[in-house]
Every structure is written in structure tokens, then in C-alpha cells.
Amino acid sequence: MYLFYHQQTTCNLHICKHNNVGIFIIAVMNYPSFYFLTLMALVQSPSAPTHLLVTRAGPCSNSGKTTITVSELSLTMRTYDSLVSGVMNISEDLDNGWYIKATMQKCVDIRNIDTCDFFKSFSVVKSGCVDEDEMENVYSLLFHYSEPRLECPLQAGEYNILNYPLFTEDNYLAVYESKISTSVFGYTLRLDGFSEDHRKILCIEAYLQLVYMRIHEWVQTEDAPETTLGPNKEEEQSEEELI
């Protein structure tokens, strides 16, 4: 996956850097309907570490009828990853060579799509089921979580994706609440898929919300206030004297 950060960004297959900021994407799935399922963005910055949290994934709201359709995907959050489940339906056999393009918008308030503006568009898959090396490895990973098992070339049928692991490094559900801040800023990611003869076969989208961590000074001090409900040291000493 290839990310972008303003005009001076330099990228290779998985890592993009912009000055002191690095954006790390772990392979957005190179398979039509679940291409984005392993999306993980980690923005590294010395002042405010940020992550992009997937808050919604599923079919495009205005995609019309396509050869490949997906249900609204369920996201089960865990400490170090999330589990994604859903249903994909392929209405006809598809030859190898399909391709996928992505469009991203940046949103002042991800809760209101009217605040979003165009950010970036790029090619994600150039020749599906024909790609080799890393692309092929990604296909194989998805196959293990589909029932019945997906194969190339894509065959018509209904496929269940069950508990596919989406690694997000830290989905912020297990860290201390005092260290968490959630911004309303975010991105939309839309993936449009096309057959080898350029027919539109797929449209899926995801909403990504910016989450960042603030380290409060009082959390790191030895004199931090007690957070448990048990007795403090003075109360314990008083009880011992009474005994």
C-alpha cells in the first residue's frame, strides 16, 4: 500500500516518509471486496503519536449494482488487533486481470461527510490474480478466512469472511483513558474495482478516524493520585493502631 503526505512525500511499497513523519500501511487487501481489510496506519511523530482507527467499513452508499457486493462489515475490537467479518457475493465468474483504484478524502469532521474534500487518488491493484510475490501472499492470507475458500480466478458464489484479523498495533481500547484523545478529523477511503474489460465490478468504502495519545505529566509521577477503591496508607495505619 502506498501513502502520501503532501508533495514532498517519498514512498516505497509499505512506508512513506515526510520529514519526521512516517506513515506505515500494512497491506490493504489486494483482493476486490476486502482490499482494505488489513489497513493499518501508524503516524509517528515525536510530539503527538497518532493512529487511524477504522470506524466503519462496507459497501459504498451510491455504488449502484456491481458484480461483487459486500455486506456491512462487523468490526470486533481487541487489544492488538480487530476481527472483521462479513459476506461477499460474486454474481459471475471473473477473469484474472481486474484492477482497483482508490480515492481518499480528508474530513474536518468525519461524522459529517459534507466536510470532506478530495485528498488523493492512486492505483492499488494493477492486475489482480496475476500479480506475484507480495500480492500473491496477501491473496493466500485472505483465503484462509473465507468459506468456501476463495481461489483465482474468482468464481461466482457467496463467500463468508470469518474473523479476519486486522492488525492495528493498538486500537486504543485497552490503554488508560487519561492518555486518550479522539479527534473528529479523519479520512474516507473508497475503492473502485474494475474487470479486465473495464467494467465496474466493486465499490467499498471505509471511514478512518484520527486518534492520538497525550502523555499527561501527572500520570508519570510517583505522586499520582490513587485510582483504586481500596483504603489508602493512612487508613491502613489507623486500622492497625486500633487492633
TrEMBL record:
The chain crosses the membrane at residues 21-43. Residues 224-243 are annotated as: Disordered. It comes from the Eukaryota. Keywords: Membrane, Signal, Transmembrane, Transmembrane helix. This is Uncharacterized protein LOC113503579. It comes from Trichoplusia ni (Cabbage looper).
